[in-house]
Predict the structure.
Amino acid sequence: DTAVSQTPKYLVTQMGNDKSIKCEQNLGHDTMYWYKQDSKKFLKIMFSYNNKELIINETVPNRFSPKSPDKAHLNLHINSLELGDSAVYFCASSQASKGDYGYTFGSGTRLTVV
Amino acid sequence: AQSVTQLGSHVSVSEGALVLLRCNYSSSVPPYLFWYVQYPNQGLQLLLKYTSAATLVKGINGFEAEFKKSETSFHLTKPSAHMSDAAEYFCAVSGMDSSYKLIFGSGTRLLVRP
């Protein structure tokens, strides 16, 4: 049973396209996150949802829009993809509101924009 | 604001030698601190965490870390390196605020020589 699953694992697309990445967790956690890992392995938070409510929205272009239909799912939609969006995107979850700040990560989605 | 600094982007050790990966943190409140490991083409896996209980924290795969408030450090150690320990290691800090976010260091690549 995969705790945090992301689909797709690989995504190759052309500039200007719109794409979505899906994330689901079966841990019963109340908080989910999207992180971006660049080519130098640097991890930067993008968004966080707690019980479907947006609580973190870092300085991310408006082309990125998260959606959380329920607390087990957090999807990421990207409009008008640019070359600089190429990266690995990680979904994570935690039971932060109960004091457990440790994240469980998905295996990542490698996005390549050509 | 919280931050972490990992000294050394690459650390190389011989198999069987001591592993020491350095992490210093900055936090205006008592922090929670974490070490994660990332194997190639995989997500991040939690190694261990400090949450204000014991200052010496034991984790998985024989790793441990000691929280030293006076030195604002949380270095990761393992007495004897194994080839399978070769990976990227990330230190992270949480300020336990309502955003629940983790701030990651820039990572240290551990190389293990036979």
